[in-house]
Write a structure and sequence with these properties.
By secondary structure, this protein is an alpha+beta fold. It folds into 2 domains: 6-177, Aminopeptidase, CATH 3.40.630; 186-359, Aminopeptidase, CATH 3.40.630.30. The chain has helices at 21-28, 31-34, 45-54, 105-119, 135-143, 201-208, 211-214, 225-238, 286-302, 316-324, 354-359, and strands spanning 6-7, 11-15, 62-69, 75-84, 89-96, 125-131, 147-155, 162-171, 186-187, 192-194, 246-250, 256-265, 270-277, 306-312, 328-339, 343-353. The strands form 2 sheets. Strands 1-2-3-4-5-6-8-7 form an 8-stranded mixed beta sheet, sandwiched between helices. Strands 9-10-11-12-13-14-16-15 form an 8-stranded mixed beta sheet, with helices on both faces. β5, α4 and β6 form a beta-alpha-beta unit. The two termini are 44 Å apart. The structure holds coenzyme A. Residues 213, 216-217, 275-277, 282-288, 311, 315-318, 320-321 line the site of coenzyme A (COA).
């Protein structure tokens, strides 16, 4: 398809021509602009001309646009899409003339280009990345609706520079961002987190039947081991779903001393956590250790983007665990909890984003 002309509030995005060489060179020849680009800075307008002459405006595998500022009529940037056949997606790239930075032009152009990919090219996957040292570019990519998926690396074309990168992706249904694998056994320094099994009811009753442990959790204190057997049956059924995350916390794979689970999630994005541990094991760092392994698994193996939790403000130990995990307080939901016999309590909400987890 021919590269079309697109329009935004302040810009015209149009195919590039050889006549653009001097204006493009003002960007592609500027070291401040090209520092994190994968191509070599253009030394002269002849380099720029050569590149412009190599562009095929009728191509079905790349779309290059010049960003024309309506107010001045000048070309102030370049950007577009190129096809990554092996990943079956389009990749977004752009750069802007230095004196036009910090005015939202790149976002304005990039959002339009992404819209073109989605609506006209009917694309279902769009990727992009930026060098870790260049976080402003990440803001542009996120403004386009792409989400951070992990770290990578790229080299410039002659191999002389290598950058650690942050990778981003947009997919139409979002389904490829998260790959459920269910409750897999996780090992930490002192713990084994495994699935519950049929023989765990008595261990569960030891903590679920103790009001000191259940005071700030949503379920009623178990009155007998039969109550624990019932919930255990329900948890075992849950493992049939591949998006079920519910671990028994053990010291050696056998006796269960607690639980950590994803209590709710939207399938793709957001996971809400709950946890509890038997009283004799409190304040030894076990829950923090268990949650660290679970967060790592949920972010890096499964691909969740946000993990949240909350605690009754009368239960600060749980909040301490959230803080130690690097979660950010996100506000208080007043009188969120009610439990017969214990009255009502405010919920202090916490969350952490994948990006923040990986940056710790
Ligand atoms: C909340 C709970 C899971 C914490 O488990 P844990 O293994 O003791 O947690 P950790 O040892 O990793 O961390 C607990 C932290 O809270 C701190 N803490 C304990 N009591 C506290 C209190 N009253 N005020 C403030 N901090 C407190 C501990 O000192 C520790 O912090 P530190 O490592 O900086 O010393 C555990 O107490 C529990 O199961 N409680 C009952 C069930 C429950 O409340 N679940 C959470 C519902 S939101």
């Amino acid at each position: 398809m021919k590269t079309p002309i697109l329009e935004t509030e302040r810009l015209i995005l149009r195919p590039l021509t050889a006549a653009d060489a001097p204006a493009v060179f003002r960007c592609a020849g500027d070291e401040r602009v090209t520092r994190y680009m994968s191509y070599k800075r253009h030394e002269t307008t002849a380099d720029t001309l050569k590149w412009l002459q190599s562009i095929d405006n009728d191509s079905d595998t790349s779309y290059d646009f010049g960003f024309i500022e309506k107010a001045s009529g000048e070309l102030i940037g370049v950007g577009g899409l190129y096809r990554e056949a092996e990943r079956q997606q389009w990749r977004l790239g752009y750069y802007l003339r230095y004196d036009r930075w910090h005015r939202g032009f790149t976002t304005e152009a990039a959002v339009k280009i992404v819209q073109f990919a989605k609506e006209t090219l009917h694309e279902t996957r769009i990727g992009s990345c930026h060098a870790v040292e260049n976080p402003r570019s990440g803001q542009v990519i996120r403004n386009c609706g792409l989400v951070f998926t992990g770290y990578g690396a790229y080299e410039n074309f002659d191999g002389s520079k290598r950058f650690r990168s942050k990778e981003y992706l947009w997919t139409k249904n979002g389904e490829e961002l998260t790959r459920h694998k269910g409750t897999q056994t996780l090992h930490t320094e002192r713990l084994v987190l495994r699935r519950f099994c049929k023989t765990d009811a008595a261990d569960i009753f030891a903590w679920a039947g103790n009001p000191a442990v259940t005071r700030y959790v949503s379920y009623r204190t178990h009155r007998s081991v039969e109550d624990s057997e019932k919930i255990l049956q329900y948890w075992l059924e849950g493992y049939k779903c591949e998006d079920n995350y519910n671990w028994a916390i053990t010291l050696d794979g056998r006796k269960v001393i607690g639980q950590i689970s994803v209590t709710e999630h939207d399938g793709l994005w957001d996971a809400g956590m709950g946890w509890q541990i038997d009283k004799p094991y409190w304040n030894r760092g076990y829950m923090t250790e268990a949650a660290r392994a679970v967060f790592e698994y949920l972010f890096c193996e499964i691909g969740f983007h946000r993990i949240y939790s909350g605690h009754d403000t009368r239960n600060p130990a749980s909040g301490k665990v959230m803080q130690k995990l690097g979660m950010t307080p996100e506000g208080i939901a007043r009188q969120h909890y009610y439990k017969a016999g214990f009255g009502t309590g405010d919920a202090q909400k916490y969350a952490i984003l994948k990006e923040e987890w990986l940056d710790q």
